[in-house]
Prior knowledge:
This protein is an alpha/beta fold.
Amino acid sequence: MTTATALTGRVVEFCRLLREQDLPVSPGASLDAARSLELVDVADAPAFHAALRANLTTSVDQYRAFNAAFAAYWGDLFLDAPETVEIPDLQPTIDGPPRPPEVVYALLPVELEGVSGDGESILPGGDRTANEVDLLTHKDFADFTPDDVVRARRIIRKLTPALATVPSRRYRPSPSGGHVDLRRTVRSAQRSGGEVVHIEQRRRKLRKLRVVALCDVSGSMDIYSHWLLQFLYALQNEAGAVRTFVFSTRVHDVTALLKRKRYEDAVAAISGTVDTWSGGTTIGACLGEFNVRWAGGLLSPRTVLIIASDGWERGDPERLAREMAVLSRRVYCVIWLNPLKGRAGYEPLAAGMSVALPYVDTFLPANSLASLERLQRTLARMG
């Protein structure tokens, strides 16, 4: 067993520890962290710490929890270090960036839990190898086995909770916000003769993600639409302000159906209600129906519109272009998810896709867990 393989196993186990501390570490971030260590000298303490933290945290607020977990987990690998190893907080300071202590770290090989049938080292605390995690994340949904389906659903459920608590740029008063509210502090001091008696604080508001999603459930999207609905089901139950529609030759509002406790029950209800599932598709006509019946009450300059379709249009492409123009003017942005975009050599040559693209702000693949993670990161930035 090589030291590199052992190190990968330890990184994956460390990521599990971070999740137990309520840090939202996705499978993609775990892989990025392991790969980043190939680019640094693992005996360089600051570089090793910084590489992991850059990939496994998303805000300064998470640094303290990360540093505590880092010290607890990696402390046994420090040679010639004090009994109590202090990992620097690395918070920005007025005097400039902090300098971590100059301590030499050395990594020791760690015995993992065994070897798989293919000769892969099994990661500590689990039954999957690092290669299996990587393959599952990037594997096309069309190639999933029943075992892959079970694991993938667990991963999808972990993708959406962070979207329900996206911090806004705006602030609100808070007794323990961590940010000094200078304006309110000065105003309060005026009531006490100019003397600062109490320092007012504030914290960032939480943005409510406004999403309207239209998912193509025609025959050509049959494999992928189930996974996209699984993501939307999790998103709707976490973020709340999400409306979900499915379409092929007609549009159906399935928001209420996706509120079932179990996803399997929700899909069964949708299949029983939507009589055009796995049929043909007329995207332009469906978008026109949506514009007439729902767009006026749902869409606004703060709405993120998601359209999931492979772009195969059996109707009039010119009508599709007109309806897309109307939608793009009403919303904050349009995200188009196309499973075919995840395939090597794909070009949007289909008539429907080519006329819709000029009105699309973000064009993303939707054929794997990695693509759904990318969608999650895109939505988190928009909030």
